[in-house]
């Protein structure tokens, strides 16, 4: 890599930093408090805590009356638990029977949802009301998956036609690439597309392209997609060591078009192209860069040709944006028809969310069992465990979706919450986790709620019969392990009949709650529904916790301080203003880099 990849010249980095500083000013982060204070709420301020509701109190009583300590093996003495706690919608079967709850607990949780006004909140979300209070705007990711003939007017603007106009522009671009008609500056067809984005402008497309690897477009002309997000440049440096500049296209994906991580990668990529292709920068930008953002003026200023710009809207949250043009890498990898199927699957879940009674509503039920675990059973760790290697990026994707949305501690009335909110979300491909951290799940001291996810069918499309049988046997093995693990987590030692009592170090206490999601196969529509299920779960939980699930002020201070710190490291000025640890670390950098 050393020869072909060099850091962009200092000039470029400085430009990027001054650009990012300007972005911080424009986004209000460097403004005074008055300028960033929240708009007034559109409903009457009500300082009552959710803990004061009747339903919350009833749930606390149930807890004290035995639910706190009841073991899942006892709960499973109730007949037909699977039937009682299984739900089905939009191709997803959800088994909540291995949760530590009863029909009576569930009834009170539903009452809690009603007291928190969840049914109304759902309608307000879907109709485009300003549910993102601190940023005073709607959160309308669901509009991105409305069918072409739907109508949704938001604050005087018909959004569905705008959404589909962008999808059509995206389709033209995708077709051009996949037909080998998009050529680089030297006239050769593009063969590799690198997405430069971070957070929501990276994780969603990264997760979906991997999950839908079976649906890759098979064309005479092949286009591969790659993802580089980290600001330290290590991912990009790796790609640039072997990619051909003549046939590489970069997508600059950034809602704000001001994120230093993405802009610094873009600057390095531009420098790499310019060094290898020569010629003028404008030409290189026209043939080798596409931009996806809500900020056309910033894209133009950077040099993205208007024809290469795909727009979306500020009412799409970054972590909810894979359905917009941010999904361009997905469409390039699986084709526009499959991208539209993904949208349709999510829309099917939206419709279910909008119309189903709370009792039958998958996102609501998933949310409520999470509330029960976090706020009553005190389980604040939540593992996502897919039993399908294609879903390897799902835990990372859910981390942003859940923790950036609901990792909050101030209510919509600016009160400090007096209850827990988002649990810590983590996870891994289940079969790999079995050889890493399941030991802790089975015998550690932490209660952890687990989500098991698996497709029922796999490898039906493999043509070679013998190979297909081998792979199907492997899939069966995966499913068997998935079910075995959730069973042992539930029952502990009672999962097997044994003669005598094993020594304590061989004991399994069980009673770790889990949900299992099964779906017929991992196809675009099902994946769309699955993601939408979790998006809506997050919203319902945020509604009950009375927090704004659509802002992310907690990430901003770090960005501001990093910009200032970078200046201190580069200029060697201002060290005295820092704390002792930061000073010591920076001095180590200076010493180390001199040596
Ligand atoms: O740092 C948090 C964040 O603002 C996320 O919410 C967002 O998805 C990510 O940064 C990237 O932002 P952008 O798309 O504006 O570059």
UniProtKB/TrEMBL annotation:
It is found in: Cytoplasm. Transmembrane segments: none annotated. Its EC number is 5.3.1.9. Keywords: Cytoplasm, Gluconeogenesis, Glycolysis, Isomerase. It catalyses: alpha-D-glucose 6-phosphate = beta-D-fructose 6-phosphate. It is an enzyme of class 5 (isomerase). InterPro entries: G6P_Isomerase (IPR001672), G6P_Isomerase_C (IPR023096), Phosphoglucose_isomerase_CS (IPR018189), SIS_dom_sf (IPR046348), SIS_PGI_1 (IPR035476), SIS_PGI_2 (IPR035482). This is Glucose-6-phosphate isomerase. It comes from Salinicola rhizosphaerae. The gene is pgi.
């Amino acid at each position: 890599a050393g020869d072909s990849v060099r850091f962009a010249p200092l000039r470029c980095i400085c430009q990027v930093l001054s650009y990012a500083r300007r972005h911080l000013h424009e986004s209000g982060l460097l403004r005074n408090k008055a300028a960033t204070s929240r708009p007034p709420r559109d409903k009457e301020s009500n300082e009552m805590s959710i803990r004061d509701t009747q339903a919350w109190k009833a749930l606390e009583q149930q807890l004290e009356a035995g639910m706190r300590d009841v073991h899942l093996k006892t709960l499973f003495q109730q007949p037909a638990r699977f039937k009682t706690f299984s739900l089905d919608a939009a191709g997803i079967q959800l088994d909540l029977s291995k949760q530590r709850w009863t029909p009576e607990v569930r009834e009170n949780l539903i009452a809690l949802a009603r007291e928190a006004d969840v049914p109304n909140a759902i309608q307000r979300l879907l109709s485009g009301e300003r549910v993102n209070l601190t940023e005073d705007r709607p959160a309308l990711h669901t509009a991105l998956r409305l069918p072409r003939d739907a109508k949704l007017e938001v604050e005087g603007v018909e959004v569905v036609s705008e959404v589909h106009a962008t999808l059509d522009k995206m389709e033209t671009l995708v077709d051009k690439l996949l037909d080998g008609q998009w050529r680089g500056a030297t006239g050769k067809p593009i063969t590799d597309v690198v997405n430069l984005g971070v957070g929501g402008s990276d994780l969603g497309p990264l997760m979906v392209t991997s999950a839908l690897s079976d649906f890759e477009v098979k064309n005479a002309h092949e286009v591969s997609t790659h993802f580089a997000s980290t600001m330290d440049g290590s991912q990009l440096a790796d790609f640039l060591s072997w990619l051909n500049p003549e046939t590489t296209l970069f997508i600059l994906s950034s809602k704000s078009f001001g994120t230093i991580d993405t802009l610094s990668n873009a600057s390095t990529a531009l420098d790499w192209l310019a060094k290898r292709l020569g010629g003028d920068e404008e030409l290189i930008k026209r043939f080798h860069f596409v931009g996806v953002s809500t900020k056309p003026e910033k894209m133009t200023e950077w040099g993205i040709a208007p024809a290469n710009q795909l727009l979306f809207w500020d009412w799409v949250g970054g972590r909810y944006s894979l359905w917009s043009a941010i999904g361009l890498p997905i469409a390039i990898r699986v084709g526009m028809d499959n991208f539209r199927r993904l949208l349709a699957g999510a829309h099917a879940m939206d419709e279910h969310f909008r119309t189903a009674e709370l009792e039958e509503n998958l996102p609501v039920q998933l949310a409520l069992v999470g509330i029960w675990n976090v706020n009553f059973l005190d389980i604040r760790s939540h593992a996502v465990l897919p039993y399908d290697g294609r879903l390897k990026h799902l835990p990372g994707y859910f981390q942003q979706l859940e923790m950036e949305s609901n990792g909050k501690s101030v209510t919509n009335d600016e009160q400090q919450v007096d209850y827990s909110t988002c649990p810590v979300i983590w996870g891994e491909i289940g079969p790999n986790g079995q050889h890493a951290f399941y030991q802790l799940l089975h015998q550690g001291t932490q209660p952890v709620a687990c989500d098991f996810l698996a497709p029922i069918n796999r490898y039906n499309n493999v043509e070679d019969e013998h190979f297909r049988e081998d792979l199907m046997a492997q899939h069966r093995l995966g499913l068997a392990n998935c079910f075995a693990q959730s069973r042992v987590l539930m029952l502990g030692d009672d999962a097997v009949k044994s003669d005598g009592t094993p020594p304590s170090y061989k004991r399994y206490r069980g009673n770790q709650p889990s949900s299992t999601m099964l779906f017929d196969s991992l196809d675009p529509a099902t994946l769309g529904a699955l993601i939408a299920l979790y998006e809506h779960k997050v919203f319902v939980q945020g509604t009950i916790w009375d927090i704004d699930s659509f802002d992310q002020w907690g990430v901003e201070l770090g960005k501001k301080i990093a910009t200032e710190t970078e200046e201190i490291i580069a200029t060697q000025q201002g060290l005295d203003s820092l704390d002792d640890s930061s000073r010591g670390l920076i001095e180590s950098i200076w010493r180390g880099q001199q040596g």
